[in-house]
Automatic annotation (TrEMBL):
The chain crosses the membrane at residues 27-46. It is a single-pass membrane protein; Single-pass type II membrane protein. GO terms for molecular function: transmembrane transporter activity. This is Biopolymer transport protein ExbD. It is found in: Cell membrane. GO terms for biological process: protein transport. The gene is exbD_2.
Length: 142
């Protein structure tokens, strides 16, 4: 840290208008060194293998159940509008006891809130459905 003790000419009344940036640079360099040392340690805590994406083309069977969730959160069972998730639960309970149990395919609009899709998934779990899948559009390969 520097300090001004006076000038050579003897003029003590001059104001020094410079900003001393040495402490700022020192602190920034220390912070840079700390981040460079600690960032590799934080990133290499646990080795995991993330799942890879795979899309499977499925053959729709007539006994499969199609549930559509509109962007407004309305639920449709094979083109029939459900009042709420309780009515959906009643329909799914009937399907859950069939052997073999049909698959449930959920089609959600792109702008549907996650809450609406979550309610449908929760209702299928409560009803005892084993296989639930999401139907999506394949990406354009153009």
């Amino acid at each position: 840290m520097s300090m001004s003790v006076g000038s050579d000419s003897g003029d003590e009344d001059q104001v020094m208008s410079e900003i001393n940036t040495t402490p700022l640079v020192d602190i920034m360099l220390v912070l840079l060194i700390i981040f460079l040392i600690t960032s590799p340690v934080v990133l290499k805590l646990i080795k995991i293998k993330l799942p890879e994406e795979n899309n499977q083309v499925i053959q729709t069977k007539p006994e499969d159940v199609n549930i559509v969730v509109s962007k407004d959160g309305d639920i449709y069972w094979n083109q029939k509008k459900m009042r709420d998730t309780n009515e959906l639960f009643d329909f799914l309970k009937v399907e859950a006891v069939k052997l073999p149990q049909p698959e449930v395919h959920v089609r959600g609009d792109q702008e549907t809130r996650y809450e609406s899709i979550g309610k449908v998934i929760y209702t299928t779990q409560r009803a005892g459905i084993q296989k639930v899948g999401f139907i999506t559009e394949p990406p354009d390969r153009g």
